[in-house]
């Protein structure tokens, strides 16, 4: 049984061939689960989290085999934040009766938080690049082959880390980061020969753009609310999509 599972999870085990491209079980099902995850989160649907957890495990195995080690570490991070995000979205949705202010709503980051995250991205990218570039020297038994595209791999990994945190707390800025990650991912995975995942990231790019549009629309709608204390309808001024608000 273990040999059968190992065989299925081998990136060289072909599920089917399309246009002379050998599609592995691992790449195909990992792509499907991750695609479904992004589609659900763009619709603000809580089921994106468990679906995404399955996709994370499959992609983790894949990235190890194609030497994208930063992406491998990224999947461990996604696994942890996947369970936390699932809990956070469920908790704040179910807690409405206890305290309405605890309901997690779509919102913007403050300018100071954006600057803090920018600093984290810059510092973490260079630190992770240095580590991943030498990981085959530090841990030769675990990572026998040098990392591919260490800077781009590290950069997109750090961007994804920050975007996931912002997504958990329903910050609109997460979509700008995801769009940037997807643009780089389209080229990076094509260069690594995993064409189906490159196509997946192109679809991710479309879904991220749609997710940004949907969340902005929900945010604008929530800004037009009734003042429950007075019973009067309070119309808040419309906000620009480029304006940074708390």
TrEMBL record:
Record-level GO cellular component terms: plasma membrane
InterPro entries: NMN_transpt_PnuC (IPR006419)
Predominant place of localization: membrane
Pfam families on file: NMN_transporter
Gene Ontology terms for molecular function: nicotinamide riboside transmembrane transporter activity
Topology of the protein relative to the lipid bilayer: Multi-pass membrane protein
Membrane-spanning ranges: 23-42, 49-69, 75-92, 115-139, 151-169, 174-190, 196-216
Record keywords, A-Z: Cell membrane, Membrane, Transmembrane, Transmembrane helix, Transport
Compartments, as annotated in UniProt: Cell membrane
PANTHER family the record matches: NICOTINAMIDE RIBOSIDE TRANSPORTER PNUC (PTHR36122)
Family: Belongs to the nicotinamide ribonucleoside (NR) uptake permease (TC 4.B.1) family.
UniProt protein name: Nicotinamide riboside transporter PnuC
Record organism: Candidatus Falkowbacteria bacterium CG10_big_fil_rev_8_21_14_0_10_39_11
